[in-house]
Design brief:
By secondary structure, this protein is α/β, with parallel strands linked by helices. It contains eleven helices and 15 strands. Helix 8 links the parallel strand 12 and strand 13. The longest helix has 16 residues.
Length: about 250
């Protein structure tokens, strides 16, 4: 299920948090409501860590990871690195990366099998991504944008890309990733998908401005379970609720 939430007054939840199939990171200092929303959905399955990177709260844009590992920039302090290593599951490898493009969440987009990276990423960083995260790595742009982590979001089930991505590019990316893709937005028309939402194989969290139609697209492409625990396709009552939400959004 996709859940709306906000970090203090910001709807860019993907800036202040990161989510994989084995852990969730959340920036320190947010309102308790944000943490409670994350923990209510996730704590039975994976740990939710409160952390900072280089003393900053925007952990979603400075880190990137998957079920096997977590990459952090070279500005990460020793104390922060020790906290992450002590708190994350033993199977998760935490690696500091010496990369000029240090906002790793903006320049790398990955699931548990494939990673897309900014065309100008260092060769050494590409090798570290492959080794630590255990994925195939491709240098790509999304909709003409080099910041693949900002303008694309995908899990092992499906993915969303920048709304201006051409059909030909989507087919190429879908072949690389081996998951279905759709062009879409979050937060009432924002194309910064990486900043507007976090997602794994069974849950998603997006900003409070996200419309009913956008929620419906997110739940459909990422194959998230609907209310009532029904996997897969939408149930009749869900479709009615989606239509009602969409109508309210359009009128408001």
């Amino acid at each position: 299920m996709a859940t709306r939430c906000s970090f203090e007054n910001s709807h860019e939840v993907g800036v202040f948090s990161a989510l994989t199939n084995s852990y969730c990171l959340a920036g320190i200092g947010g309102n308790e409501n944000f943490y409670s929303v994350l923990e209510a959905e996730l704590r039975d399955h994976i740990p939710v860590l409160h952390s900072t990177i280089a003393g900053c709260r925007f952990v979603g844009r400075t880190t990137v990871g998957n079920v096997r590992g977590l990459l952090v920039p070279n500005t990460t302090t020793d104390g922060e690195l020790a906290h992450l290593r002590n708190s994350l599951p033993d199977k998760v490898v935490v690696q500091r990366v010496e990369e000029r493009l240090s906002a790793l969440g903006n320049v790398i987009c990955t699931n548990d099998h494939v990673a897309l990276i900014h065309p100008d990423t260092d060769r050494e960083t590409e090798e570290i991504i492959s080794d630590v995260l255990g994925v195939e790595v491709f240098r790509q742009t999304v909709g003409g944008q080099a910041l693949v982590g900002s303008y694309a979001k995908f899990s092992n089930q499906g993915g969303m890309v920048h709304p201006r991505t051409t059909v030909q590019d989507m087919e190429e990316l879908s072949t690389l990733l081996q998951v279905p893709l759709v062009a879409g937005t979050v937060n009432r028309g924002s194309d910064v998908l990486g900043g507007g939402m976090i997602v794994n194989d069974w849950s998603a969290f997006c900003g409070m401005d996200t419309t009913g139609t956008e929620i419906s697209v997110i739940e459909s492409i990422f194959k998230l379970q609907r209310s009532g625990g029904q996997p897969g396709g939408a149930q009749p009552m869900d479709i009615v609720m989606d239509m009602r939400s969409s109508l309210i959004d359009q009128l408001s």
